[in-house]
Design a protein that fits this description.
The complex is a heterodimer of chains A (263) and B (354). The radius of gyration of chain A is 19 Å and the shape is globular. With 263 residues, chain A is mainly alpha-helical. Helices cover 76% and strands 0% of the residues of chain A. Chain A has one domain. Chain A has helices at 2-25, 32-57, 65-86, 93-109, 124-159, 172-197, 206-228, 233-257. With 354 residues, chain B is α/β, with parallel strands linked by helices. In chain B, α11 packs across α12. A 6-stranded parallel beta sheet of chain B has the order 7-6-5-8-9-10, sandwiched between helices. In chain B, 43% of the residues are buried. In chain B, 49% of the residues lie in helices and 15% in strands. The chains are: A mainly alpha (263), B alpha/beta (354).
Chain lengths: 263, 354
Amino acid sequence: MDRALLIISTLCFFLAMVRTSVAIKGRSYRSAGFNFSAIALGFVFQTAFLSVRGHSLGRCPLTNLFEVFIFLAWSVSLIYLLIGTAYRLSPMGAFTAPFVFALQAFALLAPIDVPHPRVASPSPWLEMHASVSLIAYGAFALACVAGLMYLVQERQLKSRQINSMFYHFPPLTDLFASLTRLLWLGFVLLTLGIMAGFFTGQPLPYMKVAWSLGVWVFYAAILLARHLGTTAPRSIAVLCVVAFSAALTLLWGITFLSQAPSL
Amino acid sequence: MNLFCVGVSHHTANVETRERFVGHAAIDRILREDAGCTEALLLTTCNRVEVYAASEAPVPTARIARCLLAKGMVAEDDEMEAFYRHEGQQCVQHLFRVASGLDSMVIGETEILGQAKKAYAAARESGAAGPFLHRLFQRAFRVAKQVRTRTGITRGAVSVGSVAADLAEQIFGHFERRKVLLLGAGEASERTARALVKRGVRDIRVANRSVDRAQALSALVGGCAVPIEEWETHCREVDILISSTAGRTPIVTRQNLAPLLRDRLDRPLFIIDIAVPRDVARDVNELEGVFLYDIDSLQSIAQQSLALRRQQIAAGEEIIAGHVHDFSGWFVAARERMLNPAGLNEPSLRASES
């Protein structure tokens, strides 16, 4: 039942992705409204999935890699819907939908939905640590998307090869401002998530702590470089993409190697 | 009742011919009283002179053309050849294409819609536009709006000035707090500066060898004149640099620009080089945060936009075809109701064309 909800949600993101691809191929990019609706619908089904899964587990659904991926996809959609409207970044759907689709399709196809033997209700601090950290990752994912969009726009401007998507993307300076806001949002949430991890009352997994702090330091360094004005916006955008790719890999590694029932 | 259109346009006549047939103040009355039209509307723009009319009996093209000439003028034979005529459904289709900008010299331009609205308002005021033209033009305005919103026919800038302004908008978003430096005060930089002022730029500095010209241009665009020797100082502060001096060698080079950019790494600099020969060395574009566009690259984007607009014509034609069919149905029914209340069959609008 819960997987059916997730399949419908994945199809919504798939539709948004296909529609955008067709529009880009036809060189008439006019799918921002459709994208927003499809992502909103996909988000509703994601929420329904997480809710059903949470009720059946009796806890926050973050017990295996499958649920971690879906929670991350849900965070990305949530922040897209909130930030997208507020900062006029709806064309981010052009990149957000394929990203969420890839996450969910991988989660559905890979044999990673393995029920965890421990069913006891975890500490609320542990649940807060895991969920807030994942929402932080959602913000970093969108910062990565904004970074990619910045790089695409910058490349087009530099090479003077302007395609039909160009005029539908947000202006370069707005993209950079949004990227900075998303970085701050993710950084604050990650800080809160890491802090919550210290109150779980359980022995600290040192590998996880080291990796989490590594990600935190990386993003702190990017923010510092951004505000000192010593690094060009293009380099900040590249760093956002690199940082998130590294963080995603580490997230996978942490979840795989960790002996704990959740993040 | 016949619905038809007679006219000349940039497709069929040069500007001299079009000028001779611009009509005159009493044209509405002449078309109805002398030419025999029941309803008539004159649409004149710099690219076309067209009469849209409804009449009980056929009105020859030559008679309409004569009405369009000023008194005492005679139409030459070759001028008459420039006139085209569309009847019934073809007339409806032609107007829908014209109003949507599909028949314009610059495909997708929107000025024509405003001109058609003005022509319709004038004909309505003088009583020259009756129920048929009223319905026809109202539908044309609707069609034009649909074509504009559902296709990409109006997308992309097609002139150098507006391409530059569009690119600047895609870099900076809003213009209110943006600063612009004009290096050289030629006509081309004036046009580009005007396009930027139109979009909200308030801070324009003009540096030119001739101080008088700098002052004159700055007065025109609401900016201030600055000594040309100080251009580097101003360059540190501005977001957009428009260059169009008459110099033989580049003024802005990588060597003199790089130090100016050191303390503004997070602020892009958009350089528009309209000068020929160019004022800005090509390798300046390689500097971080600098976007350099010369006249060729701007023109190439304008051409690209035009090509994209042309690709949208088919989608526009499809929308128009639906409306033409719809309007034809209404026209036949209305004509029957008006002319044949007893219910006798009238030849249809579509049949009348065959």
